[in-house]
Amino acid sequence: AIAFIAGVGAQALNNVTTGAIDTTTANFLVVAVGGDQNGTLTPSDSQTNTWTSLTVQEPATNTRGRLWYVLNPTMSASHTFSVSGSGNFAVIMVLAFSGVATTSAFDVENGASNVSATSLAAGSITPSVADEVIISAMCGNASQTNLTVNESMTRQLHFPSGSVAKPGAMAYKIQTTATAINPT
C-alpha cells in the first residue's frame, strides 16, 4: 500500500534549499517547483537523483510551476532539495512516499493556469488503476496568500506569499479505487 513518508519545502529569491528530511523508507519522490517565468526552475537533491519533468503550467504573467518526480531514488536520512538560480523567486515543495510501483508508475496529468483567478480547477483526471497517489500543487502571485486545495486532498505543504518568493501549496490523495478527480 502507498504511504506518505515525509514532506519539506522552502522559498527564497535566489538559491533555495530545503531543510533535511528522512527519505530512507521511500521509493518515490515528487517535487513541485514554482517561481518566476524567467528563472531556472530545475530541482536537484543531495543524492544527485535524476528528475523527470511533467508539463509546465505558465500563465501570461511572471509565474510558472512544474511537477518533477523520481522512481526508486537514492535516499538519505538527511535528504535536502534545491533550486538554483538568481532572481527566480522560487518555492520548492517535496513529498516522499513508499509503496509506489517501481516501474512505469506515472499515469496521467492535467493542469491549468490563470492570471487572476480566485479559484482554478486543475482539470479532471481518472487514474487507470486502483491504488495510486494523486498530487496537486500550485504556485501563485504575491497577492495570492492563502492557497487551498479541495477534493478531500491532504494539504501537506503551504508557503504564503513572502516579500521575496512566490506562494505555493502541495497536496496529495491516496486513492484505493480509481475515481475521477478534479482538484480546485
Task: Explain this structure.
There is one protein chain. This protein has about 180 residues and is mainly beta. Helices cover about 0% and strands about 40% of the residues. β10 (about 155-160) and β11 (about 170-175) form a beta hairpin. It is globular. About 40% of the residues are buried.
Outline of the structure:
With 184 residues, the chain is mostly beta strands. The chain has strands spanning 3-12, 16-17, 28-36, 43-45, 52-53, 63-71, 81-83, 90-98, 132-139, 154-159, 168-175.
Q: Looking at the structure, what is the overall shape?
A: globular
Mean residue pLDDT: 84
Radius of gyration: 15 Å
Oligomer: single chain
**Strand residues, percent:** 35-45%
Question: What is the chain-wise order of helices and strands?
Answer: EEEEEEEEEEE
**Helix proportion range:** under 10%
Distance between the termini: 26 Å
Q: DSSP helix count?
A: 0
> What strand line-up does the widest sheet have?
1-8-3-6-5
> How does the helix and strand content classify structurally?
mainly beta
> In total, how many beta strands?
11
User: Low-confidence runs (pLDDT<50, min 5 residues)?
Assistant: none
Biggest β-sheet strands, sense, barrel: 5 strands, antiparallel
Topology of helices and strands:
Elements (H helix, E strand, L loop, with lengths): L2 E10 L3 E2 L10 E9 L6 E3 L6 E2 L9 E9 L9 E3 L6 E9 L33 E8 L14 E6 L8 E8 L9
Antiparallel strand pairs: 1-8, 2-7, 3-6, 3-8, 4-7, 5-6, 9-11, 10-11
